[in-house]
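Title: Prediction job returns without error message
Component: structure pipeline
Severity: low
Priority: P3
Assignee: unassigned

Description:
Job completed but the reporter wants confirmation the result is attached to the right record. Sequence as submitted:
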Amino acid sequence: MVGAVNEPDLHEPIPRERLRRYCEYPYTANLLVDAARAGFEIPRLRPPEWALDYVRRYLQGERPVVITLRESRSQQARNSRLNEWIKFAETIQKDFPVLIVRDTHTANWPLGKWRTRASTDSSIRAALYHLSFCNLAVSNGPNTFCQYGRAPYLLFKQLIDDVALRYQASEWSWWRMQRLRKGEQWPWSSPLQRLTWKDDSHENIAEEFATFCAMPQAATPRVSPGVGPTYI
C-alpha cells in the first residue's frame, strides 16, 4: 500500500555496497516522527483499487461513521468500552450511517441490530476506512491504516493508568516509542486526523465527534442507516 516491492531475502555475507540504499525502522513510529519533523516526506498508505471498488459497491454512496472495536483477550484494559460505544452509536444513528468493525477475535459475532463487518481482510479494512466519513476507535494496531493513510479519524485511549501497561499506554512509552507527548499529533496528520488523548467514555466520544462534524473540511455523509448485521 506504499508502493514497496518485496525483494529476495538477503543472506550473509552481504557486501556493504548492497546495503547502502537500505534503512531499518522499528515497528514503533519514533524514527518516522523524527524524520517528518526534520522535513522528510513520510510514505502514505493507499488501499488497492480493487478493494476501494468493492467497498464503494457495498456502501452505495454512503460515507459511514466506522467504529472499530478492540475486543482482545490480551491486555484487556486497552479494550473498547463496548457499552459506551453502543451508547454513542445510538445517539447518532438518526443522522449518520453507522458501521461497526469488530476485533478479529469476535469477527463473526453479530452485534444486535448493528451493521458489522468481519475484520479479516486488511485490504478491505483499509478501503473501508479510506471511504468513511469518520473512523472512531481506541488505540490499537488496525489504526495504522488511518495513521499512515488519509482516512479521517478520532482515536481514543492513548493513555491508561495501569503499571502493567507502562510500555504500551503511558506518557513515557508514547514519548520513547512514538516521539509524541500528550496532546501532540502525528506530524503528517491532517485536521481531520486526530489523537484525542481522552478515555473512550460516551461523553468524550460525543464531544470529540461534535467538534469533528463542525470542521469545514468534514464532508456530509449520505444518511441511510442500515439495520441488521451485514457482512462484507
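Comment from assignee: result matches the submitted record. The radius of gyration is 19 Å.
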